[in-house]
Fold these 3 entries.
Entry 1:
Amino acid sequence: MNTQAKFAAALLDPACPCPSGLKTWTGGDPARRFQVYRNNVVASLIDALADTFPVTLELVGDAFFRAMAGVFVRGCPPRSPILAFYGDDFPDFIGSFPPAAGLAYLADVARLEYLRVRAFHAADSMPIGAAELAGVLADESALPGLRLRVHPSLSVLHSRSAVVSLWAAHQGIGSLAQVVPSEPETALVLRHGLEVDVIEVSPAAGECIAAIVEGLPLGAAVARASSIDEAFDPAGVLGLLLQKSAITALIPSRRES
Amino acid sequence: MTKDIPCMQRSGGASVSRVGALPARGGLGLKPEHFQTILEHLPALGFFEIHAENYMVAGGPFHHYLTRIRSHYPLSIHGVGLSIGGAAPPDEAHLDRLAALLERYAPQSFSEHLAWSSHGGAFFNDLLPAPYHAGTLNRVCEHIDRVQERLGRRMLIENPATYVEFVESTLGEGEFITELVRRTGCGLLLDINNVHVSCVNHGRDPHAFIQTLPLAATGQIHLAGFAEDLDADGHPLLIDSHGAPVAEAVWELFRTVVQQLGPLPTLIERDNDIPAFPVLLAEARRAEAVMAALGDMAVTA
């Protein structure tokens, strides 16, 4: 192994001895000095995860989070220098991290936090106006074939846990004591202006929006939602997306009639 | 002895004239927590500096605020992820992202580090040291040539803060950087905190060491704070933490450099334990006061 390969291998593996070929001006042991690099690497990457997953950290406390993140960092260092998006597989890691097994909601809270970061940095896109939507909605026969393009920041998270309530309680919205973590919730995440919103929607509404994001026409999206809730009415979903400036284009069906 | 490799001509003037140069004044690292304060007050300041990688995102608030702040201030883009000092050539996808960012914000300066941060596909988020010898010199020259060629501009290379040295090194750091500058035509980002940190860590006299650097090629100065530790033998070990005010010893070195070189664009670097904006502004003002007292403010303006 060359100098850099030895150095790199020892950075992430605490069992690996200090690489050979290092020296200090006093002729002393360089191991303690090498430890500075090791600490910098691991601590700065844990800090990057703490920035992305602050509620996850609050839920388990600083010591638990840093220990868990440290295991992740050593096994899954970033593959890119763009650290804003480091940790996309951290939620899956949390879900299979035995010491966190008692916290069934933790991985989904982390998923929600990662979606928030993605939404925060997602591309900008101009919304359509209410008048344009109204014009298209006027022709009811064309609605089932209509496709909506939505804001790049938008995503839906279906959870078996009360992810929205847990997250909101850590923003000072509602009381953590009143949250029943095992209550399933569906989150809609999107950026509206410069702010990222986390909105609880019904599972059927979430399904409809997820289908729209996938590119399905409105008719098929509503059908998917109706399979969850027969009484599903898409008007509420369209109103919410419009209000949040989340509809960026309307693509009518190419078929005539 | 190493053979000179083909290098880019000193064509920086062409691109510099397109976007101008950073003013020889104080500047600050741009932090998201200060976006709104800056836009509300538009403080008198020479420039802002960003870390390139933080802005390699598609849209959202970072670009919203940077676009507005850029319309009021000169900008320095400082990369932390190119791994120029590494074994592998610069990642072309990363160079593409950098080129797009430079195109978008037309910064007056682009700089990177004499260090490596990636290996085998992993990114370590730290500025790691390289040995100094003919082989690494050739390689780093090739990397700088490639970066300057791809970006179509001259870059500045920053002297590192290091905690260990390599048995295999045959060149001094000053000698190594002097050759980099001579062969590639790049400039020097003189990090005076790094000079101090490295000199303490390696038992050198910083005033003597700094004279071994290619000071005439200095395009920008960095001032920062460090943390103090001890090595295994109880000798002081300084950590380049960017988490404290600029130390008096670093201010003293800065005065020496200003007396010698005149005023230069001077950044207060603070990335951790970030204080309120006025605290950082006061440090930038102090740098300007040093330059006003010791140099002619019009030298490079």
Note: The radius of gyration of chain A is 24 Å.
Entry 2:
Amino acid sequence: MPITVKQSFSLSKKKFFRAPQWELKLAARIFIGFLILYFLVAFLALGVALFFIIRKIFPDQEPVSVVNQWILYFFAIDFLSRYFIQNPPVTDVKSFLLQPITKIQIVRRVMFRSLTSFFNFIPLIVLLPFCVVVSKENGLTLNLWIWFLGILTLSGVSNFLIFLINKNRNVALGIFVFIVGGYLSETYLKSPIIPYVSSAFDKLYSQPLWVGLLLILFSLIWYLTQQFLKSQLYLDKGLSKKKERIIGSKLYFLDRWGVIGVLLKNDIRLIIRNIRARQVVLMGFLFLFYGLIFFTQDIYKENPTTLIFAGIFVTGGFMTTFGQYVPAWDSEYYSLLMGQNLPYIDYLKSKLYLLMFSVVVCSILSLPYLYFGKNTMLIILASGVFNFGFGSLLNLFSGAYNATPMRLNVKAKAFENTQGFNITQMLFALPKLVLPVIIFYIFNLLIDFNAGIIALSMVGVLAFFMKNYLLRQVEKIYQAKKYETLAAFNKNKI
Amino acid sequence: MISVESLSKKYGGLNVLDLQELTIPKGEIFGLIGNNGAGKTTFFSLLLDLIESTSGTVLINEINVQKSEVWKPFTSAFIDESYLIGYLTVEEYYHFIGALRGMTKEEVDAFVVPFEPFFNSEVLNQKKYLRDFSKGNQKKAGIIGALIGHPELVILDEPFANLDPTTQIRLKNILKEEAKKHGTTFLISSHDLTHVTEVCERIVLLEKGVILKDIKTTASTLKELENYFSN
């Protein structure tokens, strides 16, 4: 008996409502729902506007033909993104293997589910309004809608091609070279590689019969993918765990720092060897560019207080994204650590040093912001000093209240990043962000810009010199919450 | 080594563990048996100060585990996979544990060499992370990890489960030898009555959190226990 949509939905429903903290997850989902709605509207608007933009910039060209010139780039980038992000949704396939369902049914379910991927919706929600507008402005033609069908078919081909090439690095590299090479040859050599391929899309538009070729191609890819996935439905093939390469095994230089060095070594390995940790750290790195939004705009020049926000984010990106999940990073083996000959204070110190070190690195990496002037740089450096001395401690302090366990080697899905989503953590964002802004604001208002910078830095310096005392206070909270934290971390053990 | 006085743990008014008095002398291989829900793991967690007792105290070498942490340097445990660090290789894990016990890398490497027969060439030099090990090999790695640095007290929860027969026999020899050579006190829980009676000098039977039997192991112990559990 095939699994009906209803059964599948019911399973998902149970999974959701029986998860711990589902109320919070629901709140997060609603928020994310609004985000998705926002993007949806944005893409739809883009689709509607596309026609008018093209008509304005290229008044003497056919709009579809202009789209055709760019669509190749779209597919190339689309393909590369899929290559890195999209995985066949096979995670729950194992439990179906022994059920009275044929393998083909399982494979088809996986394939249909993969079609609902975000990537397949982009051409749909951008080009559908575009085609509607074109039909309205230039008259309804069959050619246009067959062209639309052809593009969607190609998107589907791209969707399944990813499965077939199965993470083959050479194919991805080839496509990357093609994009860069195509772009370079077009801009510098005026060679007609890209236009030549684009003209194929034009042909699809002018001679709709070519869509037949695309449909045949799609059917072929569909068939091949089906056969391929079917052949992979074995525990030692597609369903096996990939063997990982050992990375970061040296790190001997940390040995000289005794116990703290040993713990730091673990943290570095934690970061580089676990999917979830890598994602979070990458996020922290992206915050480095956050300043570009603020520093490039003249309105903020007049109002330096807003720029403190940017400074705090730029220098403290990693610190916040990583720090807010201390001690949850160690949740999988917290019992072990608690039984070891390891004083809490040393554990906290190692985390503190890691956070402080990250602030130094981010501050150095943000030196190019000097381009935006001396004051911008002063804001970043003062925020850096604040984060270095005080922000780092604040993060450890807030972490004591975060007892949501973390599954290290599990990828957080896009729009589903709710692991550790927590109201208390959101409250703690206030002192982390608002406090430095207020400090600067008061001194900037009462005295001047420089006073604000000095005051902000002084808080960091003071906290740095009091760090042993402050850390002891943080340690007391960790001690007091030890049993609660352990219980929470061990609750979801399977 | 361990003394427990009127130790109890309640969850929502329900008594999970209620031990009036229990003393375990140094160097004893102490076995803990009982059906699921008897309170074995709760007892171990209380010993290791991982949960808070509702009443009563645990003293390890006269140290109250809830008040001080100085029992940690000479105590170790392997309860389940959460005592392993999944993203490390076995060697890195051992070096980590060793470093916390004041041992150098070289000392740790030398320490694990004699256990190679126990590992059966499936644990060391595997070039993979602990999370990718099979359950049995994870257990082997964890048990030996708990022995690093010859702690005075070693707590093992179900050490025989998931091990193949050869390894089970080797483990029994290791436990006996460690106790004899270094005076290590072992606390072992198990569902395997044969292994427990063979290895442990003393066996305590728990049921619903209460001690039902506390016996010195003799030739007739196995029969006695089997009779108890078959009713």
Note: Chain A has 22 helices and no strands.
Entry 3:
Amino acid sequence: MAGEMMTGNLAAAWGARLAGVDYIPAFPITPQTEIVEALATWCESGAMAARFVTMDSEHSMMTAAGAAAATGARVFTATSSQGLLYAMEVLYSISGWRAPLVLVNVSRALAAPITLEPDHNDVLAARDSGFLQIHAETCQEVLDSILMAYRIAEDARVMLPVIVNLDGFYLSFTREPVILPAPEQVAQFLPPFRPAHLGFKASAPHALGVAVLGGTPYSYFRHQMHLAAMNALDVHSETAAAFERLFGRRYDVVEGYRLDDAEDVLVMTNAFASRGKVAVDAARAEGRRVGLLRLRMIRPWPADAIRDALRSRRAVAVLDQNLAPGQGGILFQEIAASLYGEPLRPRALCSFIGGLGGKNLSEGEFRAIFDQTAEAGVRGKGIGPILLYTEAEHREMTQLQALAGGLNS
Amino acid sequence: MIAVRFHGRGGQGAKTASRILGTAAFLEGFVAQDSPIYGAERRGAPVAAYTRIAREPIRERGLIVHPDLVVVADASLIPDPAARVLEGIDERTAVFVNSPLTPEQFHAQGSLPGRLTTLDLTDIALQQFGKGGAISALLGVVAGRLVGLRQDSLREAIVRELADLSLAASVIERNQAVAFNCYDAVRPVLVEAVAPQPIPPAQLQRPTYEPPTRGTARISAAANSVLRETGGWRTFRPVLVPDKCNGCWLCFVYCPDGVISMTKDDKPVIDYDHCKGCQICVHECPTDALVAEREKEGGVAWRAK
């Protein structure tokens, strides 16, 4: 097989290296640290010409990243989980400056209770920040998405920063073959960054993110960000075509798997979508007409592509690897909103919550999802949110509670 | 419902006046609502405040676009388009202006429509308090008089609102006394609730994408703050008495806006186009060589860009 064995983290670092970034502010956090370690090594050895700076927190790191991008530098940085939340207010500033850097987030579930394994409450907390979001399923896709992200972000029709997301452990520490694009081809794909509205020149000072009062100018600028984000759908499509021409791999805003004659469709994101595809194959082998829709681009929200993929299906199950307490699954809400105005919408829309804190999504759980979704489709009435958690897992939990409470309680 | 709009400069007390009016109305059993709007809280910057008084629950909020009474604490705001003093005023609107000019003089200038009444509150404050900056109690009581509120409720409202600002009881009493001189002195004009006109649906602009050079909140013009003559924010100006100046440079150091420069013989020169009239230099001068002088009607504050 072509390529080299590497982790998702190393693939992310290679993405930044091949993109020829100028500046990398860094702060370590599990499970992201390997990315900045690799970049630090390359900057130290001279393999990369970027300036690498360790910062005192993710808040400072994102501030430095945004400020550097505002001078016209190509900037890369990476974080995870609590780090992303700590940097959160700066994300909104950077998108408002229209500073198109790329941030890799390695998903890790949020405290409390504290854990290290992935779910998507961290990255989805940034869904309204004005950063675009691309969620990757494989280590190869991590690397390729970073290159695509720079081209989309730096397009004058967009000029917004991008988050590329990969799952902690299941991609970040997982090795699989990754093909490294040739640097001269990357140079062809990714032109130098020359923004007209950013830059640093003492003889031509400018102010970014200025105060605007009264609501009218604020509305104008926020509307512009929305229009810019929506433009990214077309720009992504052009970028995907250019990428395919040069590198032979194709990525669209959504990926359909065995959708052609599928009655019921499972919607997923990120690394566990691979498991979802295996479950689809197993169900297909039993003669069940099921398929999978993987959402790759979360912002801008590819509503048309989602409607095209889900129109006229019997039932749709959205498997959210996140939980909005008191509401349910975050992506379920957005899928439901996209389908409501569709005359040929599915007869049943079902919500499942699974894989929280990196909990495994077992074959049995996928079977339960397909069964319940099919029944809902026959009944013509949606279900959920169904919290995926098995009886066997609960027995394990009960034992832990006994230990935590003292053996006598 | 009666809708009262106050216009003043930061530090004059327009917001507190709107609260005195709101509290007094509330004490008389009306439903009341008051709210201010201002940018960064800066002395001298234009401020607006709104008080609504009704017998039924009030379902409006925020800006008053069609006021029944407008109270102008500083006449230099009238020609400033950013202050929007004239917005929604027609010949039926009651307007009070803190000014030495008479309504006839304003009408002759043609600068203000409406049922005008004026009184020089700043001069009264200077005579009575020795300083004319904060005139919230005077503004509030004048507004209360014009909308027909009682003296006892206004008196109690002053106590509540000024005590809320941690003013001493003696200061509050003095404010009450001076305010009720104004209550008697202001010439009443008719304040009446005007029935709202039917409003056509807004013509919505469909936003289109513009390149980031235009569509980003960004200022690339160099040194354009000098174009904004914040000298218009002053109600009082610092004036140098050269004989008293000992050349200590303290005014230069304390000026928060950097509008004081020093001559070769250590005397301050004030850039009146941009001095906001905060009076910090007057306060800090150890030899009282800087004194506050009231801006004259029609003076620099009225002409500032």
Note: Residues 108 and 118 of chain A are 4 Å apart (CA to CA).
